[in-house]
Design a protein that fits this description.
The chain has about 290 residues and is α/β, with parallel strands linked by helices. It has 2 domains: about 30-120, Leucine Dehydrogenase, chain A, domain 1 (Rossmann fold), CATH 3.40.50.10860; about 140-265, 3-Layer(aba) Sandwich (Rossmann fold), CATH 3.40.50. The chain contains 10 helices and 11 strands. The protein has helices spanning about 10-30, 45-60, 75-85, 105-110, 125-130, 140-150, 170-180, 200-205, 250-255, 265-285; strands spanning about 5, 35-40, 65-70, 95, 160-165, 190-195, 210, 230-235, 235-240, 240-245, 260. It is globular, with a radius of gyration of 19 Å. It binds guanine. Guanine binds near residues 96, 99, 121, 141 and 170.
Length: about 290
């Protein structure tokens, strides 16, 4: 079997066009131009690339994007001060504090400082709580991007066994939460595996849908994948000057029925969801 390639880049481009159209409609009706503000502390090269990609995507969707670059030695108090200013600026609809932060700033404290209705990463406990209860304000960017790919490729999730590899707050936990909910592109039986899971390979091998988010290059090998499974690879790892996922792509694509590539799979979908959340934040600010 050779797997169908799930083209995240193409789906994200369609989403971006939809967002551009909705954003233009909002602007025409209210004069509001949705604005995303990214805060980047320090000089982590990967973070700089991610933030630049997010800014470029904003431009493509007709959203305003602003970057605050702060030096590595910025204190937590200075960072919180900027977040507070952005919280109270009515022209700012979405705030994104790029992770990781330098060690003097506690990530939890800094993320919790973002007012919930501008928390377009969907990291604030208030937004996570709404998500868990099945009435989300914002969507968790990477998990919702994966879910949209499953929808676009008409992959049956109801009753399917979805195995989520990884229990991070950003991907693993919210991914499991989306798939287990009642409704479309959900209703799955979900297992979360992590570094302490016993017999991990044998559980992964039971997956009809496998979401790999462990952050270890080529962690998922072909012998861990059930023939015909759908494999969504969230990993972005460096291997020399190559970007590779958490899945050993070539051999696994001989076993799976569909698979996301890295790059060009989940990555663009994360950004497209961030844009959608920014537009949602602007619409909410306008009472729409
Ligand atoms: N760093 C890596 N992924 C993310 C993300 O989704 N949001 C933020 N704010 N920082 C990140």
């Amino acid at each position: 079997m050779t797997a169908q390639i799930i083209d995240g880049k193409a789906v994200a481009a369609r989403m971006t066009a939809e967002i551009a159209s909705d954003s233009a409609a909002l602007q025409q009706a209210t004069g509001i131009v949705p604005q995303l503000v990214a805060v980047l502390v320090g000089d982590d090269p990967a973070s700089a690339v991610y933030v630049r990609n997010k800014q470029r995507a904003c431009e493509r969707a007709g959203l305003k994007s602003t970057l605050h670059r702060l030096p590595m030695e910025t204190t937590e108090a200075q960072l919180l001060d900027l977040v507070m200013q952005l919280n109270s600026d009515s022209a700012v609809h979405g705030i994104l504090v790029q992770l990781p932060l330098p060690k003097q700033s506690r990530e939890q404290v800094s993320l919790d400082a973002v007012v919930p209705h501008k928390d377009v990463d969907c990291f604030h406990p208030h937004n996570v709580g709404l998500l868990v209860q099945g009435r989300p304000r914002f969507l968790p960017c990477t998990p919702a991007g994966c879910q949209r790919l499953l929808a676009e490729y008409k992959i049956e999730t109801a009753g399917a066994h979805a195995v989520v590899l990884g229990r991070s707050e950003i991907v693993g936990k919210p991914m499991a939460m989306l798939l287990v909910q009642r409704g479309a592109v959900a209703d799955a039986t979900v297992t979360i595996c992590h570094s302490r899971t016993r017999e991990l390979a044998s559980i992964v091998r039971q997956a009809d849908i496998l979401i790999a988010a462990v952050g270890q290059r080529r962690f998922v090998t072909a012998d861990m994948v059930k023939p015909g499974a759908v494999v969504i690879d969230v990993g972005i790892n460096r291997d020399g000057d190559q970007l590779v996922g958490d899945v050993d792509f070539e051999p696994v694509s001989q076993v799976a029925s569909a698979i996301t590539p890295v790059p060009g799979g989940v990555g663009p979908m994360t950004i497209a969801t961030l844009l959608r959340n920014t537009l949602t934040a602007a619409q909410l600010s306008a009472g729409k």
